[in-house]
Specification:
The complex is a heterodimer.
Chain A lengths: L2 H21 L2 H4 L1 E5 L2 E5 L4 E2 L1 H4 L1 E8 L9 H19 L5 E7 L2 E9 L4 H9 L4 E9 L8 E10 L3 E8 L6 E7 L1 H13 L7 E3 L2 E4 L11 E4 L5 H13 L6 E9 L1 H30 L1 H23 L3 E2 L1 H28 L5 H31 L11 H35 L11
Parallel strand pairs in A: 3-15
Antiparallel strand pairs in A: 1-2, 4-6, 4-14, 5-6, 7-8, 7-11, 9-10, 10-13, 11-12
Helix pairs in contact in A: 1-9, 1-12, 4-5, 4-7, 8-9, 8-10, 9-10, 9-12, 10-11, 10-12, 11-12
Chain B lengths: L7 H22 L5 H4 L1 E8 L5 H10 L4 E6 L5 E5 L4 H15 L2 E9 L1 H29 L3 H29 L5 H32 L3 H33 L5 H38 L1
Antiparallel strand pairs in B: 1-3, 1-4, 2-3
The chains are: A alpha+beta, B alpha+beta.
């Protein structure tokens, strides 16, 4: 064996051990150690998509009818930012908020892992939450009409809030919202309360009066309390909406998907079983068809599997059901590169000595593998749509499938060609004279 | 050497019969379009008491919602396909089912507005065209001939025709629906089909240097050389797909079935559709030149 061969084999070994460790279930694969003052801790978990972990996807459509065409993009980004803040304040772990513009339809796609009761989420996200303080102006009695009063908006709105939080009213014990104005907002509030002592000051949220307290005295200090007829949940939701700000334009729910956690768990256990059975069948087949070479292919297949799972955890890649299918298909492709090479070897072996035949087989098979893999990568590119082209799908599951398939193809180049080649070299060179006995003939 | 190309008419006949069979199904029954494309609602419930689909359907209808179908799944849960359902109606359905069956656990809920579905169709078509165009170009460049590219893409569309046709039959007899996963499967089959075709093409390209230009002989030689590989590789993929089909659960059953049909068709179409077209095209263009 040449030194470079040994180096390569050591490299493969180190990689395989590392990858095997990372791909173990989290119980075994988490790193936790301390050397002196240096402590290191890292978790290696698979990221599961909504269809496996359970959760919801909500698609909203923004109503752009009142927005000038040149301002629509800004408005949509504004909507996205507000929804982003609301979802984060809601306390969902790893939510995603995306926008999509296609054929004049402006959409916001919200994914909430772990949330299956979507009613609350839809209320939280979909409400415009435009808060406004109104004054009551009295209209004196005239000849034609009796005395009446009219609501007049003030310049004080939800935009003047610094923060909002849920409190419990000291007198009634009911939930209420405590608000803190910005300095500017506090001044406005002082002015408004100053000129309305003894009168009602209606607070209006999305065109509905939520409370109309009577002003007792001018309020300085920039804070106030809204006590409506809230339940605790409603109060919490409103506090989140006020903190996140109002939506610049109204949105409507157009589609919604939610997957319960039990269905997801069931899918995982079934796919894992199917995967194991499939891989075992393939491994047996390779040994039956190619004997000792089949064993080398199976080692390559093992390396392929652990590196793939390790990369899923490291990158990380969100695993969805189609993603699992993509993984299984790429197993098929990984084995295919070995089949190609072994079949080629059978031919070449008749023309030259085994060691040389091996090198020639790898070289010739490479041409077809390169061209064939590139064609599959083209399809993966279209499916994954990494540049977010608006005329192609951006759907999560399809993307997941394409990414796992593409990754599988790239890793199989390493496991099916680099690894098997070095293992076979070892095999063929050391037993040069015994090659003829091998049942590959 | 086996003269594979001598029996071109036979391959054409086999392909023709399978495709006609599928087209017949398409014309007679069409495709079952899923909620993702059509718009509508899909809910899956796990009920405590099995009250039967008839009662479920009635309970939903009384809430004023259109019922497309109610199916019992393998695992004993119920899959409801409904018209548009809003959040209040969703709660109503659950309450009335809980009353009837003791408890109703909502396993999944999907509702898609009609415009979203329309968009998916358009985007899918664009995806298909771009992928096909990219592959045609790639093959044409790598094999330095547009004939290779076009023949490969024709074989590709042969496979999609086979799959779509078979799917209308699955749909009619077993309720398989066209959804996003079907689209994914279709696109994957395209790349698989080309993968196999390129492997055969590669042998033609390689032998050309040593054995000259007669495409008829080169094609026979390449087909013989790749036959065992093609069979073994098909076995491997079929093993994986059958494992997924039998053990992988309801959600991906038709996805896997589609891939299985596509893999078989893709393995067949490379030596028996793409290469014969290439050879025939070459013969015709040579005759035209010699005239």
């Amino acid at each position: 064996m040449t030194p470079s061969n040994i180096r390569r084999l050591i490299l493969i070994l180190v990689l395989v051990v590392t990858a095997t460790f990372i791909s173990l279930p989290p119980k075994f694969s988490n790193l936790n150690f301390k050397i002196g003052n240096f402590s290191f801790s890292r978790k290696f978990d698979l990221h599961l998509g909504l269809d496996l972990a359970g959760g919801s996807q909500l698609t909203f459509e923004a109503d752009m009818s009142k927005i000038a065409p040149d301002k629509q993009a800004t408005a949509l980004t504004g909507v996205k930012n507000v929804i982003d803040r609301r979802v984060n304040l809601f306390g969902v772990s790893e939510p995603t908020v995306q926008t999509s513009v296609f054929n004049g339809k402006d959409r916001i796609i919200v994914e909430l892992p772990g949330v299956t009761d979507t009613q609350q989420a839809v209320d939280l996200i979909g409400k415009t939450a435009q808060l406004q303080f109104f004054e009551v102006k009295d209209i004196p009695k005239t000849l034609t009409a009796s005395a009446s009063s009219q609501l007049v908006p003030t310049e004080l709105t939800g935009a003047d809030l610094q923060s909002a939080s849920v409190v419990f009213d000291s007198q009634t014990g009911k939930p209420a919202i405590s608000i803190q104005f910005t300095t500017d907002g506090g001044n406005k509030f002082a002015d408004i309360t100053g000129r309305n002592v003894g009168k009602a000051l209606p607070i209006i949220l999305d065109n509905a009066i939520i409370s109309a307290p009577i002003v007792q005295a001018k309020i300085t200090g920039g804070s106030a309390q809204i006590s409506g007829n809230f339940t605790v949940d409603e109060a919490k939701q409103l506090a989140i909406q006020l903190n996140a700000g109002a939506l610049p334009i109204p949105v409507n729910l157009v589609s919604e998907t939610s997957i319960g956690a039990t269905l997801g768990a069931d899918s995982i256990s079934r796919s894992v079983l199917a995967g194991i059975v499939g891989v075992v069948m393939v491994s047996l087949f390779m040994i039956l068809a190619y004997g000792k070479f089949g064993v080398v292919a199976d080692i390559g297949l093992y390396i392929f599997a652990v590196i793939t799972i390790a990369l899923y955890k490291l990158i990380p890649i969100t695993i969805t059901l189609p993603g699992i299918a993509g993984f299984m298909l790429s197993v098929g492709m990984a084995v295919d590169s070995n089949i190609l090479i072994f079949e080629r070897f059978k031919e070449e072996k008749l023309k030259r000595d085994p060691a040389q035949a091996l090198e020639v087989s790898f070289g010739r098979a490479w041409n077809s593998i390169r061209d064939a893999y590139a064609a599959t990568l083209i399809t993966c590119f279209v499916l994954a749509n990494p540049l977010d082209w608006v005329f192609l799908n951006t759907s999560g599951p399809i993307r997941g499938f394409a990414i796992t398939l593409a990754l599988g193809i790239i890793i199989s180049l390493f496991s099916g060609i680099f690894v098997s080649r070095n293992l076979l070299r070892l095999f063929v060179k050391d037993k040069k004279n015994k090659m003829i006995d091998m049942n590959i003939i | 050497m086996i003269m594979w190309m001598k029996y071109r008419w036979l391959y054409l006949l086999i392909s023709g019969v399978v495709i006609l069979f599928g087209l017949f199904g398409l014309a007679k029954w069409g495709l079952q379009i899923g909620v993702e494309f059509k718009g509508g609602t899909l809910i899956e419930y796990k009920l405590e008491k099995d009250i039967g689909s008839e009662k479920i359907s009635q309970a939903v209808k009384t809430s004023g919602i259109e019922v497309v179908s109610v199916q019992k799944t393998q695992t004993g849960s119920y899959l409801l396909k409904l018209g548009q359902v809003n959040t209040t109606q969703r709660v109503n359905i659950k309450t009335s089912l809980t009353k009837l069956a003791g408890s109703a656990d909502e396993l999944r809920f999907e509702t898609i507005g009609p415009t979203v579905g329309q968009e998916l169709v358009t985007k899918t078509l664009y995806g298909l065209l771009i992928a096909a165009g990219g592959i045609l170009l790639w093959v044409a460049i790598q094999f330095k001939s547009i004939k290779f590219g076009v023949s490969a893409v024709v074989a590709m569309f042969h496979d999609s025709l086979v799959v779509v046709g078979m799917y209308s039959i699955f749909g009619h007899f077993y309720g398989a629906e066209v959804d996003l996963l079907f689209v994914t499967a279709l696109l994957t089959i395209l790349s698989f089909s080309v993968h196999d075709t390129i492997i055969v093409y590669d042998r033609i390209r390689e032998s050309k240097k040593a054995y000259g230009d007669d495409l008829y002989d080169l094609a026979n030689k390449a087909t013989s050389e790749t036959m065992v590989r093609s069979l073994n590789n098909t076995f491997v993929v079929v093993f994986m797909m059958i494992a997924l089909l039998l053990l992988g659960g309801e959600t991906i059953r038709w996805f896997t079935a589609t891939l299985l049909v596509g893999t078989l068709s893709g393995a067949y179409s490379s030596p028996f559709v793409a290469v014969p077209i290439l050879v025939t095209w070459d013969e015709i263009s040579k005759k035209l030149k010699n005239r």
